[in-house]
Design a protein that fits this description.
about 25% strand; Peroxisomal Thiolase, Chain A, domain 1; 4-stranded mixed β-sheet; globular; about 350 residues; 3 domains; binds coenzyme A
């Protein structure tokens, strides 16, 4: 049975760097507050009109494809993870297929927010293991800056997020002991509303009691996105930060240990852990809990903020570019986020 190796990796960071100090022109915040609570010093925002989630993904994909030593015509399938798609529908996968002038291959979009890339990797891995595809383009990309509340009202969320993209070419290999060893996917919908963007949506307050506007009198066509929702800032993401933090610090170590235990490995076997870059304090907590050395954990949230589905492939790409990942190394990726969903993947590079 073939396994899936990461044959090429690429990332794209938009040029426009926004420091914590820069954010003070929009909201009441301080560099000190942001750094102390999150470790973030700066993030990058895509160009307002010239860059989209898909255009950034295309740039990252071109690099990944080139590094894999193939062309876009060799790609058999696309899996695209994002929560900030160019359109509500269709998904970004088909836009990549068009932009890279690929064959009429399948394109699948994944909506698993911060866990999106690990979920995408897992889905692609199954297609390769069954022999259905040989080269799959797996992408995580986000343009958060288009839809955050930059007033003081939204500061607990908006300071955390940044834009960017990462992509890998997952390729079938027969080489013994190389590639994805296992992936582990989980969810618990009990807390779905604690980290969510409710609108535009069809929920009509069915699930959400507070703080969604009462729009029962809205005209039927307005229920998807009404002026009232915009007035009450309900077209922006909502997050109960402390609740997310508490759950994340339990689920991150749990899903990493699940992957190791399943494969009779220990934390000492990990060459490098690439945690989803949610908050440096979360990563540090996980590192401490698992007694990992500094060189075993890669963080770059200081420079990019939380780029959701793009955070793992961007971090993986940077770690690889810095020579921190070599053939034979054991790489562990782990993510936690909205849903809640959480996931891990173990890869022998
Ligand atoms: N600048 C300054 N003050 C801010 C602020 C900002 N950007 N954002 C919030 N505050 C204020 C709050 O208004 C609150 O003020 P109050 O005490 O006067 O009411 C105070 O800071 C504390 O807010 P709180 O939300 O309790 O802070 P916290 O210590 O929990 O830190 C997070 C907030 C968001 C950094 C933290 O909860 C977190 O990282 N959670 C996980 C988030 C995450 O990982 N999300 C992505 C999931 S993958």
């Amino acid at each position: 049975m073939p396994t899936s190796k990461i044959a090429g990796i690429g990332c794209y960071i938009p040029e426009n760097k926004v420091t914590n100090e820069d954010l003070k022109q929009y909201m009441e915040t301080t560099d000190e507050w942001i750094q102390e609570r999150t470790g973030i010093r700066e993030r990058h925002y895509a160009h307002r009109t010239k860059e989209t989630t898909t255009t950034m993904a295309v740039e990252a994909s071109k690099i990944a494809i080139e590094r894999a030593g193939i062309t876009a015509l060799d790609i058999d399938f696309i899996v695209f993870a994002t929560l900030s798609p160019d359109y509500y529908f269709p998904g970004c996968g088909v836009l990549v297929q068009r932009a890279l002038q690929m064959k009429e291959i399948g394109a699948l979009d994944i909506r698993n927010q911060c866990s999106g890339f690990v979920y995408a990797l897992s889905v692609a891995d199954q297609f390769i293991k069954t022999g259905m595809y040989k080269n799959i383009l797996v992408i995580g990309s986000e343009k958060h800056s288009f839809g955050l509340d930059f007033s003081t009202r939204g500061r607990n969320v908006s300071v955390l997020f940044g834009d960017g993209a990462g992509a890998v070419v997952l390729q079938a290999t027969e080489k013994e002991g190389q590639g994805i060893i296992s992936t582990h996917l989980h969810s618990d919908g009990q807390s779905a509303e604690l980290l969510a963007m409710y609108n535009p949506g069809t929920h009509a307050n069915h699930w959400v009691k507070e703080p969604v506007a009462d729009y029962t009198d809205a005209a039927i066509g307005e229920m998807f996105m009404s002026e009232q929702m915009i007035d009450k800032a309900q077209n922006f993401p909502f997050m109960d930060g402390p609740a997310v933090f508490k759950k994340a610090i339990v689920k991150f170590p749990e899903v990493i240990m699940e992957a190791l235990t399943k494969n009779r490995l220990t934390t000492a076997d990990i060459t490098i852990l690439i945690p989803h870059q949610a908050n440096l304090r979360i990563s540090q907590f996980v590192q401490q809990k698992l007694a990992l050395r500094n060189d075993q954990v890669f963080n770059n949230i200081q420079h990019y903020g939380n780029t959701t589905a793009a955070s793992i492939p961007i971090a993986l790409c940077e770690a690889w570019q810095q020579g921190k990942i070599k053939e034979g190394d054991l790489v562990c990726m782990a993510a936690f986020g909205s849903g809640f969903t959480w996931a891990s993947a173990l890869v022998r590079w």
